[in-house]
Design brief:
Number of helices: 7
Strand order of the largest sheet: 1-2-3-4-5
CATH superfamily of the largest domain: Aldolase class I
CATH class of the largest domain: Alpha Beta
Structural class: alpha/beta
Amino acid sequence: MNNLNKYLYVYKIGSGDITWLEFIEFIAKKKKPIFIACGASTINEIKKAINAIVKNKNNRICLMQCNTNYNLSKENFKYINLNVLNSFKKKFPGIILGLSDHTSEHATVLGAISLGARIVEKHFTDNNRRQGPDHSFSMTPKKWIEMIERARELEMSLGSEIKKIEKNEQQTYILQRRCIRLIRNMRAGEKITCNDIEYLRPAPRNAFKPFEKNKIVGKIITKNKEKGSELYKSDIS
């Protein structure tokens, strides 16, 4: 192990070794990042593994949700339990989240990313027809590229928590929304009634919006306006 250490940037604790605390402590003392896969384990076993690392003054941990069934059955999706990542956020605040996945498609990866996973482990092969226990569900180069592309699209799509009118909506905002418009030609000095207005697209900036009806009805129009014209503050008194 000591001979290999100089070549390694990160260590991976497989699900089968999560209860081998002496080994985990040995790895922790190397002071390098550690990925922990936690398939077929309990939350108490996970806590013990993490404590074994942290007590050795190593907090460079990625905790990876995992299910250790390696066949291609669609039934397996019922047992992936990506929402466990939400539990990990609460129980281990600040820890890096990940997914160690054995499904053959991208749904689990995209779901994990949306729940906060930042590291994904997948098996890799050049041919799914090769003999061996892992090849059938492993990622081929083509699928790997697809996974990365879909993941990058999702990361961009997640965006901000702030709800606002985005830059690429500015034109749509004007075209799709309705504003208050006149049903008939009106001359300066006339009083606007409910029968004089309707709500039509587009809605230029600063034009009265439908919910501002009460600001217009009963007011005097200050200039001649043609049928279909939108109304602004400068048009009424």
